[in-house]
Amino acid sequence: WVTSPGLQIGITVTDNPSIGKTLSEGERASVQCFSHTVDLVVGEAIKSQRMVQNLLSIARKICERVHRSPKAKEKLAELQKEYALPQRHLLQDVPSRWNTSFHMLERLIEQKRAINEMSIECNFRELISCDQWEVMQSVCHALKPFDAASREMSAHASTLGQVIPMIHILNRKIEMLFEETMGIDTMLKSLKEAMVSRLAAALHDPRYVFATLLDPRYKASLFSEEEAEQYKQDLIRELEELNSTSEEAPVSNGRAPGSPSKDSVGEENLWSLVAKMTKKGPREKTKVPEDMVLAYLEEEVLEHSCDPLTYWNLKRSAWPGLSALAVRFLGCPPSIVPSERLFSTPTENGGFGQSRLTMEHFEKLIFLKVNLPLIYFQY
């Protein structure tokens, strides 16, 4: 329903500050990739506490030993059956990717009983103490909401309107973690500080604010009364500006203005009566920006499972200007991950990596890859 005449260059999402700077210099709007920012926040926090780093080192060595030792693998499988544990392999992390470290620790905790016994029977030098298991549990508990947030914001249907709500959720969760965990206070303090230094500015950035206001699942619910009133007025002004720059010129009817048609005779022709009747008839008053914004904000907030763009598709007749503004902000994803997935494809059978791939074919392949799943097409 976003027709080609209405398309325009919008907001660019990037994980590269240099690209963002270049776009700004070219007067193009850009935002930082939320998932990349979360990676930086969590990465700083993990590095801030030596105990956590040591624990990760021990976990890596245990997983590596099991992968390399047939005897350890066999013993682990026996113990999994004996203790009715899930029969799954241990996971080896990639140190530069914190989410893989999180999943590695989660798997170790799941297999804790088997890991302890296997480490002793196979004479591993690395043994995890009771206190270390507690800290490991706390680390996983702390990283779990960030892993969930990263996956949520990297989903295909995620919008820029979810960024401010997610920041509030993560900040609240960090406060709760101080009471729910043990031995990782330094890491939690680093998480809290990094959230402020890297994400606090987004809470007042007009692009995120408008996206949140125009997301029918949130609207002004996350802002104070004073903020809500200020942002509402800002939204009205933004809508007024949009209306003033998007007024369509009258479509030419093929003749010069003021020239009579060949069948008309002054004011007495029959068709002039129709014009007069329509002018005098009841016409719906054009909704002004303030009326649209107020009517929208007075509606009930939708459930989180609702699709905001589907909502605005249904509202485009009632609030055309506001729906166009909503598409501008909600059409922007919060992360570059969906784009990375789009371009991640096998090179065989017409992949994007072909040396002779033309731009025309490239555009068609992109179109098909995005839209075929919508009609449940099976490759």
UniProtKB/TrEMBL annotation:
Region (Disordered): 243-265
Residue ranges occupied by any HAT C-terminal dimerisation domain in the UniProt entry: 296-371
Gene Ontology MF terms in the entry: protein dimerization activity
Residues spanning the membrane: none
Domain of life: Eukaryota
PANTHER family noted in UniProt: ZINC FINGER BED DOMAIN-CONTAINING PROTEIN 4
UniProt name for this protein: ZBED4 protein
UniProt organism field: Crocuta crocuta (Spotted hyena)
